[in-house]
Amino acid sequence: MTNSTRNIAVDAVVVGAGFAGLYMLYRLRKLGLSAKVIEAGSDVGGTWYWNRYPGARCDVDTAMYSYGFDEKLQQDWEWSEHYATQPELQRYLSHVADRFELRSDIWFDTRVASADYDEQDASWTIRTEGGDTLHARWCILATGNLSVGRIPDIPGLQSTSLPVYHTGNWPHEGVDFTGLDVAIIGTGSSGIQAVPEIAKVAGHLTVYQRTPSFTVPAKNRPRDAVEYAELKKRYPELRRSLYAGEIYGAGEPLEPGSRFRRNVAVADASEEERRAEFQERWDRGGGHFNGAFADILTNEDANEAAAEFVRTKIREIVADPEIAEKLSPRGIPIGTKRLAVDDGYYATFNRDNVTLVDLRDDPIAEISDHGVRTESSERRHDVIVFATGFDAMTGAILKIDVTGRDGEKLRDKWSAGPRTYLGLMTHGFPNLLFVTGPGSPSVLGNVVCHIEQHVEFIADMLAATLGGGRDVIEAELAAEDAWVERVNRQAEGTLYPRANSWFLGANVPGKPRVFMPFVGGIGLYRQICDQVVAEGYVGFERSTAARPAEAARG
Ligand code: NA7
Fold it and tell me: In whole angstroms, what is the distance from residue 325 CA to residue 189 CA?
């Protein structure tokens, strides 16, 4: 390391070197633009670089949760299992970075502190925490939807001498839990993945649960060579189905014409048909359980039928009826928080070395030097794991001090919730682009597919704009307002807003409650985007910078 700071000018700065940032860099280079990617981690991977907790793996079949932009890449790469583990995903992204020689344009171990728009020059000045400065026409935030971990503010936590970990920022050397008394707080997807793995080695594991989540078995298995070869032959067609929103690779049969969601309402099926459909999906495994009927996410009774099926399974699996009841979610429609996909979660509570503490009866009062004190008792632990989630969707964007036209701060503009046009841009911040930003399908479905669609939209829009001799793009205010309205309307037509989820920002005290992702699905979203392009990027004002600075610069 040297102490010298860097000062460069490029066409585009991309923040983040996960799935989104890597592909964005690839596409920018194809356009002949110069670019630098700024990455806080020491390697590529984003989510898959940071989330190294035991059991961390994808909840979508990785044959589809992977890039489709390069046929040779998807033919060459061999996924060993249906739901790849974090190390395998990290190896894949590392391979992509090497294969396309992306690393030379990535600054690792570098965190962006601020981004300021200069209207005179129609450019962004991006400053890093280490004091580097980059000037760029385009600033593209590929910062991820779940990248700012959240540890709740519990009394005693700052002063405890116990080791404390967060699933989203796991030590690279790993943590050896062998024989230890471990506490885990949080039972969302991360907790649900970590619990069975930690229980296998810990002396004792205490699971502190505030809200039970619905989870279905992943039924993960090694890839069958013959089946995989068949799948590879059909890759182009499967990717088309994925982009059309017909499949998303969450356990559904990856066959032509197969649908993630069936076009049958629960009310139109007999009791027997319902059970058979739920059972079939439960047995197959994966998040497509929710697609069993068309109205699970829109009709309360339909949702309750699916929810009760899962509760029945919990009662069948968990030996102690009291524990089974505590693990059974009630009052939260299934699927309105991301449906978790697990490997033996409920059965783990049959182990002698696992205890469930229901925080609804007995909230946490303090973290002491010995363990966790709830209102009724203190339990001793050697180590505490927080699986308490993220400041989702806007967290990483707003961590950067972004200043747009006329000195407007993005934090101020979004103080009542994020406002974007298509999840791609926000008015008042020209040439600032988001990959899978709030207002796009982003986290609802297969994120990699959503990333590819956004990166391609952005690359095509830049090409069309620059090709037409223009170099400034800004979301029009009216288009943005109409889009925000549409995103809200779309969510209100579903059961999603009923849950206190991170989709709503409800998990972060003080965060505005606004439903952030577009719930209409990638198929509809893609059609809308295609229409926007067909109408000449309607809603995006594209112009040429009035640039007296050009001469001054040279
Ligand atoms: P989630 O899904 O946000 O889950 C966080 C969990 O932590 C959830 O059970 C929370 O309970 C719990 N939590 C949060 N704060 C507290 C406090 N103060 N006390 C006790 N329990 C608490 O995050 P994950 O990392 O599991 O998953 C995020 C996404 O990553 C996931 O959806 C996948 O897409 C991958 P609560 O529900 O708030 O009562």
Answer: 19
Is this structure's pTM higher than 0.85? Answer: yes
Same domain, 193 and 235: yes
Radius of gyration of the chain (CA): 24
Asked if residue 522 is part of any domain, the answer here is yes
Cβ of 146 closer than 6 Å to ligand 1, yes or no, is: yes
Amino acid occupying residue 485: E
- Is 190 touching ligand 1 by the criterion CB < 6 Å? yes
- Ligand 1 site-directed mutation target among 388, 390, 436, most atoms within 8 Å of CB: 388
User: At which of 330, 358, 386 does a domain end?
Assistant: 386
The alpha carbon of 502 and the centre of ligand 1 are apart by a number of angstroms equal to 8
Write the pLDDT tens digit of every residue in 492-540. 999 999 999 999 899 999 999 889 999 999 999 999 999 999 999 999 9
> What is the domain extent for residue 411?
7-44+102-148+392-543
**How many structural domains comprise the chain?**
2
* CA 139 – CA 36 distance, rounded (Å): 10
- Give yes or no for a contact between 425 and 521, defined as CB atoms under 8 angstroms apart: no
- The answer to the question of residue 265 being in a domain is yes
Q: Given a cut of 70, is residue 258 above it in pLDDT?
A: no
User: Are 396 and 382 in the same domain?
Assistant: no
